[in-house]
Amino acid sequence: MNSSFRPPMASAPCLLGDETNEIIRYDAAPAEVALLNGLSHAFGICLNEKQDTPEALFLSDLARLFHQKRIDAETPLEKHDRPWANVYLIQYGILRLFRESPTGKVAIHHSFTEGDLIWPVFGRSRTVRNTLCLTSVLPATVWVADFAAFRSAIQSHGDGLWARFALVLTEEMAELTSMREYRKHTMSAKERYALLVDEYPELIKRVPDNQLASWLGVVPATFSRLKTAAKS
């Protein structure tokens, strides 16, 4: 870190209950700032003070489509056999993407965290043939927009813009899926668990073990043994 940089000093949280002029207080940023920051990150756009640039106008148009929603843990957002309707930007919390068989067996495909933008990547997901489900893992604060309006707004800002944006996430999801399948067939459960701890340390702390077990492709009892062995 540059030694010339000195962050502003804030008062200790334990003093905030006291009424004293020495306490430094900062106004909370408006919720819309979090939304714009999330969208700018998703589209790789650097925000600055200029509000009339094409990039800033583009993000403002998208932001108007979203509304904030607070949800409890285990709240279903998208269900199978129904067209996936919305786009979600996570401000706080974790959401899981999964499939569930008629017998109740669950296969978790991915966990999304703060800053992630989630939308129906695959065309089938936008029809009644949708097999994907999206549910909150923890209490969460998300920004929600209608998917059709979101896609239309992006398309209106330039030919090929939607295709370029969609391709990035489609390729990312395809790569994650293929890599998970490769590891499942070529690595032991112990090796996969070690990679899970290394690559997703925050999820290990925040997601219930039974869901991590499903993501790893093992039964909860096996996951428990792997976790215990890793600590010894």
UniProtKB/TrEMBL annotation:
InterPro entries: cNMP-bd_dom_sf, RmlC-like_jellyroll. It comes from the Bacteria. Gene3D superfamilies: Jelly Rolls. This is Crp/Fnr family transcriptional regulator.
